[in-house]
Amino acid sequence: xxxxxxxxxxxxxxxxxxxxxxxxxxxxxxxxxxxxxxxxxxxxxxxxxxxxxxxxxxxxxxxxxxxxxxxxxxxxxxxxxxxxxxxxxxxxxxxxxxxxxxxxxxxxxxxxxxxxxxxxxxxxxxxxxxxxxxxxxxxxxxxxxxxxxxxxxxxxxxxxxxxxxxxxxxxxxxxxxxxxxxxxx
Length: 185
Hints:
By secondary structure, this protein is of the alpha+beta class. The protein is built from 3 helices and 7 strands; from the N terminus they run αβββββββαα. The protein has 2 domains: 1-37 and 129-162, no CATH class; 43-125.
């Protein structure tokens, strides 16, 4: 049986880039939860398009409320009677510690006003499609272990494939047929 590996350079780069992205998202989620120095928000609505799309992971870090400026994206919870869930919108206006927010895709400001705490969570990084991975991990240690096992197996498969290719090439260089048929004249 002939083992022929012919993978283009572009396919290798895409493979390694995908694995690197998965590792980056896992590290960001895990380290953020362990250190409590940042958190990851999974965007679920389209209100922040085009800068943040549904399924993106948004890394949020705390800053003093005094450093907040219009246009910065913050995580907040609207007051009653609005749904009591985290909303990721940009600051439209700020006056005496009270902000009005707005989704980038929305034409009007949100109908609520938010009184700022001394510290506010703001956007520092958007990882496209990373919210799907972050949602899968959630608070489930089994899911995290499964994802790490998949990454390790993928690295192992790439390494074994590389070693087999190198071994095959070395054997081909030193191949000498045991017997050659030389016709007699």
